[in-house]
Amino acid sequence: MKIKCVIADDEKYAVQVLNDYITRTPGLSLVAECRDGFEVIDVFDKNTIDILFLDVQMPQLSGLDVIRELKQRPSHIILTTAHQQYALDAFELAVFDYLLKPFSYDRFLKSLARLNRDVPRDPEYVFVKIDRTSVRFNVEYIRYIKAEGNYLRIYLPDRFEMVYMSLAEIQMKLPKSKFIQIHKSYVVAISAIQTVKYDSVSVGDKELPVGRLYKSQLNRVNGLK
Fold first, then answer.
1. Each residue's pLDDT tens digit in the chain (225 positions)?
2. Is 50 helix (H, G, I), strand (E, B) or coil?
3. Angle in degrees, 0-180, between the axes of helices 12-24 and 105-118, rounded to the nearest 10
4. Is 26 helix (H, G, I), strand (E, B) or coil?
5. Reduced to 3 DSSP states, what percent helix, strand and coil does the chain have, rounded to the nearest 5?
6. Maximum Cα–Cα distance for the chain, whole Å?
7. How far is the C-alpha of 52 from the C-alpha of 114, rounded, in Å?
8. Cβ atoms 154, 163 nearer than 8 A
9. Cα–chain-centroid distance for residue 82?
10. By three-state DSSP, how is residue 186 classified?
11. pTM of this prediction exceeds 0.85
12. In angstroms, rounded to a whole number, what is the distance separating the alpha carbons of residues 101 and 49?
């Protein structure tokens, strides 16, 4: 899965440089280029983003104000600015890195190397108890999970397993980047979703309900309005 990036800068040349750096770097995907702070907020309302490359001095809304206004922050924010005086503000806002313009491709890669060390890897499997025995499930094989009272049905490609566990408990074990709750009784593997309708999603030949409270989150994950 590629790392989703957004560039926010009102300087055309600065955007071109970052666009080139992102394009040259395997594993990165550029989702949007924003020229002002309100564009950034609009993009984040509709998408789940991993890295925001953010200039400080932008029209209408500064980069620092953008950080304060974002309802859903990306995993990492990297400030890109020609001014050193914002370093303290960056620290207070928990910015991941501070790239002083003009910065080289090598400096860009060093920031990403720090990011890779900072981000924990998603678990490849989870352990759940079945009849007092801990059983390992490869997360790639889990299609969806349905809550039934105090039990869960874990649906795999060829069968389902019944386990004594709550939906909240298993969600703590599952990688958040790969699973999404769509209903009070359903958690689904994002990769298993084939179609998204107004009030349901399809997984294989099954139609699963989408609860009203979970629609906005599902739309953000799938890049829908």
1. 688 999 999 999 999 999 999 998 988 999 999 999 999 999 998 888 999 999 999 888 899 999 988 888 888 999 998 888 888 888 888 888 999 999 999 999 989 888 766 545 566 788 887 877 788 888 889 999 999 999 999 999 889 999 988 998 898 888 877 899 999 999 999 989 999 988 999 998 999 999 988 888 787 666 544
2. coil
3. 60
4. coil
5. 35, 30, 35
6. 62
7. 15
8. yes
9. 28
10. strand
11. no
12. 23
Under a CB-based contact definition with an 8 Å cutoff, are residues 15 and 33 in contact? Answer: yes
Please answer whether residues 160 and 174 qualify as being in contact, where contact means their C-beta atoms are separated by less than 8 angstroms. Answer: no
Q: Please list the residues that pair with 155 across neighbouring strands.
A: 144, 160
Cβ-defined contacts of 118-121 (< 8 Å, 24+) = 118/76, 119/75, 119/76
Distance CA 116, CA 219 (A): 27
- Listed in sequence order, the residues at least 6 apart from 151 whose beta carbon sits closer than 8 Å to its beta carbon are 162, 163, 164, 165
Contact assessment for residue 29 and residue 205, using Cβ atoms and an 8 Å cutoff:
no
Please check whether residue 163 is in contact with residue 171, taking contact to mean a CB–CB distance below 8 angstroms. Answer: no
CA atoms of 199 and 219, how far apart (whole Å): 12
DSSP conformation letters of 156-177: -SS-EEEEE--HHHHHHHS-TT
Q: What DSSP string describes 78-136?
A: EEEES-GGGHHHHHHTT-SEEEESS--HHHHHHHHHHHHHHSPPPPSEEEEEETTEEEE
| Size (the chain), residues | 225
